[in-house]
Amino acid sequence: MEHLLRVAAAHAADYRASLTDRPVRARLSGAELKAGFARPLGAAGRPASDVLADLVEAADGGLVASAGPRYFGFVNGGSLPSATAAEIVATGWDQNGWNGVLSPTAAAAEETAGTWLKDVLGIPATASTGFVTGAQAGNTVGLAAARNHVLAQAGWDVERLGLAGAPRVRILASEERHGTIDRSLRLLGFGTEAITPVRTDAQGALDIEDLSQKLDPGNKGPLIVCLQAGNVNTGAVDPLEAAIALVRAYGGWTHIDGAFGLWAAASPRTKHLVKGLEGADSWSCDGHKWLNLPYDSGFAFCAHPTSHAAAMSYRAPYLVGAGDVYELGDFTPESSRRARGLAVWAGLQELGRDGVTELVDRCCELARRFADQLAAAGFEIGNDVVLNQVLVSYGDDATTDRVIEAVQRGGVCWMGGTTWHGRRYMRISVSNYLTTAADVDLSVEAITAAASA
Ligand SMILES: *Cc1c(COP(=O)(O)O)cnc(C)c1O
Question: pTM (2 decimals)?
Answer without folding.
Answer: 0.97
